[in-house]
Amino acid sequence: MPLLVAVVGAGPSGVYAAEALTRQSRVEGLGVRVLVLDRLPVPFGLVRYGVAPDHPSIRSIRSTLERTLDAAGVTFYGDVQVGRDLSVDELRASVDAVVYAYGAGSDRRLGIPGEELPGSVAAPELVTWYTGHPDVHPDDGTAAPGHPWVPGLLSAAREVVVVGAGNVALDVVRVLVRGVDELAVTDMAHEVLVALRDRAVTDVHVLARRGPAYTAFTTKELRELGELDDLDLLVDPADLVLDESSRLVAETDRVAARNLAVLAEWAGRPTRGASHRVHLHFWTTPLAVLGTTHVEGVRVTRSAIGPDGLVRATGEPWDLPAQVVVRAVGYRGLRLPGAPYDERTGRIPHSEGRVIRDGAFSPGEYVTGWIKRGPTGVIGTNKSDAVETVASLLDDVEQGTLVPSAAPDALPALLASRGLHPLGMPEWHRIDAAEIARGQQLGRPRTTLAHRRELLDAAAAPEGGDPGSGRT
Ligand SMILES: Cc1cc2nc3c(=O)[nH]c(=O)nc-3n(C[C@H](O)[C@H](O)[C@H](O)COP(=O)(O)OP(=O)(O)OC[C@H]3O[C@@H](n4cnc5c(N)ncnc54)[C@H](O)[C@@H]3O)c2cc1C
Ligand SMILES: NC(=O)c1ccc[n+]([C@@H]2O[C@H](COP(=O)([O-])OP(=O)(O)OC[C@H]3O[C@@H](n4cnc5c(N)ncnc54)[C@H](OP(=O)(O)O)[C@@H]3O)[C@@H](O)[C@H]2O)c1
């Protein structure tokens, strides 16, 4: 009898877990069937709804993930939300083991006054908008509840403040300043491209609360910003004079040293009178988002690292004018009702991927990816992470604490009894073909179908049919 494993989430970590499970050769004679569930109609998690559209080679990792989901022994169940359509207990009762791989679906807050003003958005909101996520592209064309109406914000904002010095901040900055012709060759949804054509943005201010030796940028991504057309980069050379602790970081951390070299080159560049500017403000902390009915600016101050290692404000505040503020200060994992969760860390407690429930290992429960280790790491990091989790699971099979016994049809029968119609890989391939066809109609390689209705129509369309024609 095969071992039945349900994976909650079809992002990189879930798919890498499915791959490691179905390719296992450690437990002789053990067949494994993996059922990968995702709340969205399509798989791939942040590879589709996070990785920047102007990074096509990274987005193409999708093809590798797709091969695993298409492989024998793996079944994709799209449009099934665990915790809403079925409970964690029901899922656990219908399979032998569950692997939580549902990512980090929320954002970190700054905790400063004015953060809730219209015009103050979290990077995940902007990212889900420009990657064409159905949550923020509702079928009726309105702003989803709780989500800002991004096109309106960008058409009115000349100055944008981006808080944070990580790779997501860099993605956001590029999308804000890159020319629309360059974006047209991406797979961005057509309506996103149209809205970006109407951007008013000329100046983007990036706030790094620590110095240039302490950024979370990777050098390749930082350097890319310096290669954009029609953009002046403004770095204060005084910020590149390193204090003793920054010097130590630069001597011991090769990424920091390379980033400093890139920033030093920018600081020495003459400005070109470009139509866009990115201002990098180091040692600068936001104190408040200013405005009465919408964002009008950000009050900032110089900051420093105190003897306790924490960042603290120093010096007099000053105000940066801005009509939009983007908080790119990291993601945060959410609680899945019925699954263990550590409020402090925003993760599922575990040891080597075995979930800890009420202080003890929970038989048949495992975790991988961002909900296991927190919202850090590139796509490849999730592979070794998933391998660790699957090794723990296979250990448990070897030790006899995890024994195949679930009925193969239990989960599909449960979903059917709820009246659910999950989308599988055949449906994904129809959506994929429809996105390419739609793109080609518009003279582009592909366009993302951003609305749920479009995705469902494409999934149901006969081969080559136009999914868009059915959308209301
Ligand atoms: C904006 C952004 C850009 C990035 N760009 C890059 C890059 O260029 N290169 C790189 O190497 N890394 C990049 N990363 C990092 C990379 O995307 C992550 O390391 C990786 O996606 C984490 O994988 P995951 O499977 O844990 O989570 P996710 O990719 O978030 O996948 C989680 C999946 O779970 C699903 N889900 C959530 N809740 C439920 C539920 N209740 N029931 C069912 N399904 C559920 C979600 O829909 C999602 O599909 C980026 C990250 C972000 C945020
Ligand atoms: N192209 C790529 O490879 C790519 C693209 C996007 C994302 N990713 C990966 O995805 C992961 C998440 O990226 P991320 O950018 O969201 O997170 P991140 O790498 O953790 O960066 C977060 C940034 O926000 C700052 N920050 C946190 N709290 C703050 C606060 N209260 N006030 C001011 N600044 C604050 C951090 O500064 P401190 O350091 O001072 O805390 C840091 O500069 C990373 O591992 C990243 O490499 C990769």
UniProtKB/TrEMBL annotation:
One of its GO terms (molecular function) is ferredoxin-NADP+ reductase activity. It is an enzyme of class 1 (oxidoreductase). It catalyses: 2 reduced [2Fe-2S]-[ferredoxin] + NADP(+) + H(+) = 2 oxidized [2Fe-2S]-[ferredoxin] + NADPH. InterPro entries: FAD/NAD-bd_sf, FAD/NAD-binding_dom, Ferredox_Rdtase, Ferredox_Rdtase_adrenod. FAD binds at residues 13, 46, 82, 370, 377-379. It comes from the Bacteria. Gene3D superfamilies: FAD/NAD(P)-binding domain, NAD(P)-binding Rossmann-like Domain. NADP(+) binds at residues 209-210, 221, 377. Its EC number is 1.18.1.2. Its cofactor is FAD. Belongs to the ferredoxin--NADP reductase type 1 family. PANTHER family: GLUTAMATE SYNTHASE 1 [NADH], CHLOROPLASTIC-LIKE. This is ferredoxin--NADP(+) reductase.
